[in-house]
Design a protein that fits this description.
It is a single chain. By secondary structure, this protein is an alpha/beta fold. Helices cover about 35% and strands about 15% of the residues. The protein is globular. The protein folds into 3 domains: about 110 residues, Alpha-helical ferredoxin (Fumarate Reductase Iron-sulfur Protein, Chain B, domain 2); about 160 residues, 3-Layer(bba) Sandwich (FAD/NAD(P)-binding domain); about 150 residues, FAD/NAD(P)-binding domain, CATH 3.50.50.60. Helix 4 packs across helix 7 and helix 5 crosses helix 7. It binds flavin-adenine dinucleotide. The site of flavin-adenine dinucleotide (FAD) has 42 residues, from helix 8, helix 13, helix 15, helix 16 and helix 17.
């Protein structure tokens, strides 16, 4: 008999006034008892609507049933069939818009906490099963190059290695993991977890070459000349956008990517870190996505007294995950919605000392379906801040497209693919993740890496 409690089991978390001063993980994870109790809320529906909400089609009812039976390793095996990064996905996937949004229990109460259960299972496996993942099939002698070690590249590489290919990942940074290590902060996704998932992949035979910028160190054509028979481009969308308003070149203006990279990858938050970062007292973060929430929460943890989210639409249109917005609010982040910056102001030494904003109201819906913000006349005012973090989106870096002959891209600089296989305009070159879609999500990037791995296998078998 299913557990008919209408609400999910709460996830234990660090108290807001404690966690906004440290970088340790906010959510603490279910205990065994909480996980089993939560799993028993699943009705094990015959038609499995939740699976259709999962971009990598994990058999959710099957893994949840194993949790309910207390067989956590079997649950892990079910998830691992489809996802090579379960500890990551259990933490950062927007489940409320994916699998959980389709859960039948959500009709009359809260859906089953699928994400929390995935996280529990992955963490249980890491803590209790020390065996490395099963080694890859016998090598088939064919070499594939993967550009970028974010979720799309890691997934594509892992799947190809399992099929017997000899895979090398070329990563521009000194550490593998993409946004998982340089963008998403430690308090949402501990870096040890990413490291262990990557070690798992290496044990399948995947080689990772860091500090290798494709387009500079080697070109795509040179990869083919070096004997790679197919290439997957998973280079993400790491180029920050700015608003092009006066004052953006003042000292104290950061792109969110730079601010987060300094804080996370370069560990600026540690006392002994050599990475320079401004410990500003009053910070404005411009934007309303997950990246803006991460930047604001990092600024608070670095010691800022007042941190503002300046966003031109209302709370309802905010693209960030609801949970992230709630966590930010609890931690004392001040939301200035329906506000838009028009100028950043500086002092005589060219350091930021304010941001001029106008108030907005919502007008007619635009092409995205969201009501567009319209400026209210004579509503200008100055917010007193000493740092501004721009978090209004990113696009793919032009380096690969400008050094690869015959690679078609669209007007946003995203690589054009022919279909779900990720095949580009160049034979043998596949692409996926943010480099194709623009900034999106971890699980969509993983799904793209998976589809391309399958397509590359078919291409090389028939070549
Ligand atoms: C701060 C932040 C928070 C986010 N939070 C969430 C969240 O909570 N949930 C969620 O689902 N998604 C979130 N996202 C989005 C998610 O992280 C991305 O959609 C996902 O990482 C995209 O994966 P990817 O593999 O396409 O690219 P990336 O993760 O960007 O990885 C691309 C890799 O390619 C490397 N690279 C780039 N150019 C080259 C080159 N020329 N040569 C070699 N290597 C190169 C880069 O250094 C990088 O390591 C967040 C993003 C950011 C920035």
């Amino acid at each position: 008999m299913a557990n008919m409690a209408p609400k999910k089991n709460e996830m234990p978390v660090q108290a807001p006034e404690v966690r906004n001063k440290n970088f340790s993980e906010v959510a603490l994870g279910y205990t065994k008892e909480q996980a089993v109790d939560e799993a028993q809320r699943c009705l094990n529906c015959k038609n499995k609507p939740c699976v259709s909400g999962c971009p990598v089609s994990i058999d959710i009812p099957e893994f949840v049933e194993k949790v309910a039976q207390g067989d956590f390793e079997a649950a892990y095996e079910v998830i691992y069939r489809q996802s090579s990064l379960p500890a990551v996905c259990g933490r950062v996937c927007p489940q409320e818009r994916q699998c959980e949004s389709k859960c039948v229990r959500g009709i009359k109460g809260e859906p089953v906490a699928i994400g929390r259960l995935e996280r529990f299972v992955a963490d249980w496996h890491m803590a209790n099963e020390h065996e490395k993942s099963k080694s890859a099939n016998l090598q088939n002698g064919k070499k594939v190059a993967v550009i970028g070690s974010g979720p799309s590249g890691l997934t594509c590489a892992g799947d190809l290695a399992k099929m017997g290919y000899s895979v090398t990942i070329f990563e521009a940074l000194h550490t593998a993991g993409g946004v998982l290590v340089y963008g998403i902060p430690e308090f949402r996704l501990p870096k040890d977890i990413v490291k262990r998932e990557i070690e798992n992949l290496k044990s399948l035979g995947v080689e990772i070459v860091t500090n290798a910028v494709i387009g500079k160190t080697l070109t795509v054509d040179e990869l083919f000349e070096a004997g790679f028979e197919a290439v997957f481009i998973g280079s993400g969308a790491g180029l920050p956008r700015f608003m092009n308003i006066p004052g953006e070149s003042l000292n104290g203006v950061y792109s969110a990517n730079e601010f987060l990279t300094r804080t996370n990858l370069m560990k600026a938050y540690k006392e002994d870190s050599q990475t320079p970062i401004m410990h500003a007292k009053r910070v404005a973060v411009v934007g309303g996505g997950n990246v803006a929430m991460d930047a604001a929460r990092c600024a608070k943890r670095l010691g800022a007294e007042d941190v503002y989210i300046v966003y031109r639409r209302s709370m309802d249109e905010m693209p960030a995950r609801r949970e992230e917005v709630e966590h930010a609010e609890e931690e004392g982040i001040i939301f200035k919605t329906l506000n838009n910056p028009v100028e950043i102001l500086g002092n005589e030494q060219n350091f930021v000392n304010g941001i001029k904003c106008v108030r907005m109201e919502l007008g007619e819906p635009d092409e995205s379906g969201r009501r567009s913000p319209v400026e209210i006349k004579d509503s200008e005012y100055v917010l007193d801040v000493d740092a501004v973090i721009m978090s209004i989106g990113t696009s793919p870096n032009p380096l690969i497209r400008s050094t690869t002959e015959g690679l078609d891209t669209d007007r946003r600089g995203c690589i054009i693919t022919k279909d779900e296989s990720g095949l580009t305009s160049r034979a043998g070159v596949y692409a996926g993740g943010d480099a194709v879609t623009g900034a999106a999500t971890v699980i969509l990037a993983m799904g793209a890496g998976k589809s391309s791995a399958k397509a590359i296998d078919e291409y090389l078998k028939n070549k």
